[in-house]
Structures are given as structure tokens and as C-alpha cells.
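We emphasize that the prediction below concerns an isolated chain of 491 residues; any contacts that depend on oligomerization or on bound cofactors are therefore not represented. The input was used exactly as deposited, without trimming of termini.
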Amino acid sequence: MCKMTNDIYQEPLVSRYTGKQMQQIFSNDFKFKTWRKCWIALAESQMQLGLDIIKPAMISELVIAQHTLDYELVKAREKKIRHDVMAHVYEYGTHCPTAKGIIHLGATSQYVGCNTDLIQMREAMKIIKIGLVNVINNMSEIAEKHKGLVGLGYTHFQAAQPTTIGKRFTLYIQDLLMDLETIESLKFKARGAKGVTGTQASYLELFNGDYEKVKKLDQMVAEKLGFDDVFSVTGQTYPRKFDTKIAESIAGIGVSLSKFAIDMRLLSNLKCVDEPFQLEQTGSSAMPYKKNPMRDERLTGLSLKPRSLVQDFYNVAATQWFERTLDDSAIRRMDIPQLFLSGDAMLLLANNITYQNVDLTKMRPLTFYPNRIRRLLNEELPFMASEAILMDLSKKGYDRQEMHEIIKTHSTKAGWAIKEQGADNDLFERLGKDKKFPLTKSELEKYLEEPERFVGASERQTEEFLQTRVKPLLTGYYSDLIGKTETEINV
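Result of the prediction step, given as a C-alpha cell string:
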């Protein structure tokens, strides 16, 4: 195996962005030791079903040598025979002199290849789920904390009817809950022991045509590999359609987290929020005062990777010829690890951004600024209040259409003054001076004292959403996952 070195390319997902646990799942050691686990499961099941050429001593020999790997010998053998699986069969056999003849008995290369891929993805998805649940938990704490913090809403990134910061976070959480539901809907099954083209012909030969034993072999192998089910039918490989669903689930998380990160970047520009910032952190090499939202920018960038990989998995699934072609091998060898590594990188970063219980002597967490948020709100609130003013005047018997026209005229002029002259919003002053309008400036300014009036049911919606949709999951089924993910990032 190659040691880390600075004179050749290194995968940034490994060197910069991901956790050790995910890296280990896609390591050579995990992969090839799992191949051996597959061979042991096959031989042991064959013996238990009565194949008398396999003896208990052979199984013991296979188990003892399971973790002994001579990578240099494998490399030399593969260079000679140009077949990675058979190179490993040969190397394994050098440690198992009495069992070498029954290693891989009746199997095709995809027996170890497919089952191992499925095991790796199954274990990797557990890490993805832990990260996702913790981001949801972090965001629920933020939503609870800021459920009543009134700020401008934005449509088309133009000031719109006010909402609360907590309510906005429920939108992010809801997206992530859909991602969690998608992950939960995925049922990992074993490829099992299906033979060269999925017909189980070789196993029927071994068991003298006893189909019941052949079916039992399939199930027993799956169970020994930690699966409670197998794909009912396969070609040489398990259906590559399943990979597209895996890819979609992680890409979906990327979509959700990118939307969140972009919103934080926009609010950062408005000086309403700062992402976590270490006290010794440098924001810009040229401008010492800057606090660029680099974490959220990175999250946006990382999310592109799984979203772009989905197309690769679509193409592989769509272009498989009959029972199998080898053109899926090289691309999946790259794409499956990168899919899960990018998912891990996104969730580690999202947890870092949203985690609130940081060491305040070293950094600040994601921080909202109520006074700045209120100032931006006040600048727009005279416009935002116009609907409420109209309703109040209508209740008092004033002609709504007439009042609407007056407010529209002065709103247009006030808006032009703000844009063309850099003036303050003087809509209420203009209305107060209009003799046709029934309210004075002081009466109108009372609307600014109750911004909560303009957020509708935002706070109640937030409370209900957290109580009914989020907390039951976090305190119930997923409670043991909280706090099980990293919140520190490498760079």
C-alpha cells in the first residue's frame, strides 16, 4: 500500500474533509478482509448444507488467516494474471494450504465484489444517518432558540412579509427529514450466492440438483454477512438500479444542505449572521476585517459532488448489457467511495456550522444579530405594514380601494427616494401629511412597535413542528444517535 506522500496527487476528500471512520470503510483493508469474510461465509454454508469435501479444519484455517494480507504478493500476482479477485484467491490460499482448493467454490468474481460493495454502502450509510440526525438536532435547537426572532422574509431575494428565524429553520429541517425518510426507505439486501449469470447453475451442480439447498445457501450466506434478505433475482451483479437510489439519497442531502448554506451566505452579506468563527481565524489574506462565510461556501461546493455523481450511476444502470458488462467496474470503483466520502464531508461540515455548544474561549457558534435583523426590518416595515393598515381602516368603514391608492402613491415615491437619494424610509411621514389619509404619523408608527403582528403564525408553527414532527424522532427512535458525530473539522 502507498504511504501518504506530497509528490503525487492525494484525494482531498480524504486528506482534508472526511472522518477516519468513513475512510476506513472504503480502505483496502476493509474491502479485502470483507472478501475473505464472504469466502468464509460461502464455504461454511456449503459445509453446513452437507458438501462433504469441505471440512471443519478448512473453515478454521480460513478464519485464522482472514486478517493476514500480503499486498505485495497480490500485486505481483495480479500483474501476471490480470485478475484482481483471482490474485486474492491465490494469496489467501498461500495462508490456507488445506483449504485453498475450496476458496471461491462455485462463485463468480461478483460474489465477493457485489456483496462487499453492499456491505460497504450499508455500513457507510449508518454514518451518513448519524450525521444527518445530528444536523437535524442542531437545527432544532436553533429553531427553538430563535422561534420568536422576527426578521424580513425574502422572495426573489427582495424584502417580503416578515417571518421568524426559527420558522425559517423549520424549512431546512423539513427538507432534511425528507432526506432521512429516503434513507430509511432503502432496504439493503445481499447479492447472495447466485453464480456466474444469476442462474445458480454451479451450485446446483455442487448439490446434485437440490434446488432447496441452493436456495438455502443463498439465504445462509446473506445472514452470515449481516443481511436479512437477498435480491430475489440477479444477473451476474446485483441490480445497478439500486445504486441510483443510494446516490439519489446522498445527493438529496446535498441539495438540502446547499440551500441552507446559501441562505446563510446571503444573510452573512446582510450582516444578520456569522457562521462559526475561531478567535484566531483569518478571514481574508488581503482584508483583515473580513469574516468570509468559508464554511458555508465549502458546504455549497461539496454538495456539487454527490449531485453530479448521480448521473454516473444512472448511466451505469442504463447501459448494462444483458447479465453484466465490465464497463461498470472502473467508474464504480471511484464513484461509490466518493459518493459516501462527499456525504460524510458535507455532514461533518454542516454539524460544525450548526453545533451550538462550542468552547466560547476558542470560537463563536453560528450567531444571529437581533439588532441588525431589527434594523433591516424597520427599514422595510412601513411597506410591510400597509396590508395591516388597510385591514384596520376597512374595519373602521373607510373605502379600501381609496386607501389602497393613497398608500400605493406614497409608497412608490418613498421607494424612489430610498433608491435614488439614499434617503430613509419616510412613508409614514408622507402619509401623515396627506389630508385625505385618516391616520397621523404617530398613529402609524405604532405599527412598528409590534413586528410580531406581521409574522402570522410563525412562532406557533415552529413550536408545533418541533413538538409534533421533530422531537418525537430525536427523543425516540434516533435518541441513541445524538452526539455520536464529529463537530470538529480539519481545515
